[in-house]
Amino acid sequence: MPDIAIVPAPRELTLHEGRWTTADPVGEAVRDVVENLDATEYRIEITTEGARLTAGSEDALRHAETTYAQLVEAAEPVEDGKVAVPLAHVADAPRFGWRGMMLDVARHFMPKEFVLKIIDVLALHRLNVLHFHLTDDQGWRVEIEAYPRLTEVGAWRDHTMVGRMSHGQTEFEYDGTRHGGFYTKDELREIVAYAAERGITVVPEIDLPGHMQAAIAAYPELGNHPDRQLTVRPYWGISEDVLNVNDATVEFVKTVLREVLEIFPSPYVHLGGDECPSVQWAESDEAQKRQAELGLDEPGQLQGWFTAQVAEVLAEEGRRLVGWDEMVETDCPKDAVIMAWRSAQRGVVAAKAGHEVVMAPCESVYFDYYQGDPETEPLAIGGNIPLEKVYDFEPVPAELSEEEKALIVGTQCQIWTEYMEGPEQVGYMLLPRLSAFAERAWGSPKVSYDEFLGRLRPHLARIEKLGVNYRPL
Ligand code: ACM
Fold first, then answer.
1. Does residue 87 sit in the same domain as residue 170?
2. Which PANTHER family does the annotation name (predicted)?
3. Is the Cβ atom of 442 under 6 angstroms away from ligand 1?
């Protein structure tokens, strides 16, 4: 039997004795969207007579094409420029509807051309969501016409800390290099269209009300100390400078979101919600007044109120709110999709509270963590997630009931770029861990890690062809 190296492996693949001889396996294959398959299912039948790809939708047909292209790589040359294609039957459908990757372009800006390559990588792995982390303390990356200073000021920082940040660190050494950049609306529309052509939804994230220091540097009136001129944050960690909870700030954010919604047709929009300290709200007369008006017990509860206010813009446009798992603790809207990042257990809590959940736990799918010995690996944030651990990741916690398990709508890997200055570093941290992740997101049969490695080795050539860096096995 020939060596077939499809990644992620299809749910069902059967090989038969015999070959189909053809000059052009891709051009000669018959393709059909049919009614008797569900929207996500596809089939491939290769007989001595030819190849037929059928699918329940255009998206699923695209998946059939991707699998088929990998399958016919096993064809062997015969006479007259023809090839002999192995006979095969594939019946396939993904386990999850949300099979994502998050790319942080705030900590380090990534060129548009590289974002398009990342989309190619996602398509190669039959993943379907690019979660685009567009704003953070260290940079604002999306053009907003109503507020040009968000990019004029917020997209640039004078310099960046050197080395790894330690807990509680307050003194820094800087690199002396201005860093920044942003995407124009036209560039973002190009990214969205490029992704859509490949069956991928770009979910924008505007992280709020914390992680907003770049915006507050651009518009100090958004902060709790409007008299202070902040800089775009040149080091990592969690900033206490968060948005204030005034009506004018709510309106500001709503205007921003309306522009974001115009660019991104995604049914889902991510409003962050992670790591939002409430110390400034506790100290602010205005925030305290708001807390009293709303009858809230603690300043931290203002986060839920603020998010609900600005999320009205999403509801008006029929979009779903997505948020990091802290949102569960802030009385967020019940229909919010929760992205569990602090641990898989946070996903359990969110599902038990009735939320749909995307499992993105840091202990399994944070690809900014080390993947080998820190002594020999490039500087990373910490942790240790080698390839085999990703391969062994199970997105659905066993302790959930069947009803709760159905709320796990998908899974996502994360690339936070504090310690990745550009495409080369991102590629190294992302791949091939993303290939292992894609197997779990798709629901590929788990044979053994060795079996996976056997398919992965030839698969690396496909990644290389896309011009993306990866960590050699
Ligand atoms: C996160 O890693 N702060 C979502």
1. no
2. BETA-HEXOSAMINIDASE, BETA-N-ACETYLHEXOSAMINIDASE
3. no
Q: Give the three-class secondary structure for 94.
A: coil
275 is a catalytic site residue: yes
Among 45, 187, 259, 275, which one carries the catalytic annotation? 275
What is the reported pLDDT for 3? 84
What separation in Å is there between the alpha carbon of 92 and the centre of ligand 1? 33
363: Cβ below 6 Å to ligand 1?
A: no
- Residues 63-88 pLDDT 10s: 999 999 999 999 999 999 999 999 99
Interstrand relation of 42-47 and 156-157 (parallel, antiparallel or unpaired) = unpaired
| Digit-coded pLDDT (tens) for 184-215 | 999 999 999 999 999 999 999 999 999 999 99
Which residues, 6+ apart, have CB-to-CB distance to 250 below 8 Å?
A: 306, 309, 310
pLDDT value of residue 301: 95
Distance 62 CA to ligand 1 centre (A): 32
Question: What is the band of 1 on the pLDDT scale with cuts at 50, 70, 90?
Answer: low
Over residues 32-60, the pLDDT tens digits come to 999 999 999 999 999 999 999 999 999 99
Of 38, 62, 92, the last residue of a domain is 92
Alpha helices in 135-177 (DSSP H): 149-152
> Last residue of a domain, which of 92, 110, 139?
92
Pocket test for ligand 1, best of 208, 322, 324, 325 (most atoms within 8 A of CB): 324
User: Residue 107 is part of a domain; what is its CATH number?
Assistant: 3.20.20.80
Closest-lying ligand 1 atom to the alpha carbon of residue 360: 4
Domain identity same for 171 and 259:
yes
Ligand 1 centroid to Cα of residue 324, in Å, is 7
Expressed in angstroms and rounded, the spacing between residue 273 Cα and the centre of ligand 1 is 9
| Residues present in the chain in total | 473
Confidence (pTM): 0.98
Number of domains in the chain: 2
Protein residue whose Cα sits closest to atom 1 of ligand 1: 274
Query: b/e per residue, 52-72, with b = 16+ CB within 10 A?
Result: ebbbbbebbbbbbbbbbebbb
Answer yes or no: do 146 and 18 share one domain: no
The domain containing residue 326 runs over which residues? 98-465
366 within ligand 1 shell (Cβ under 6 A): no
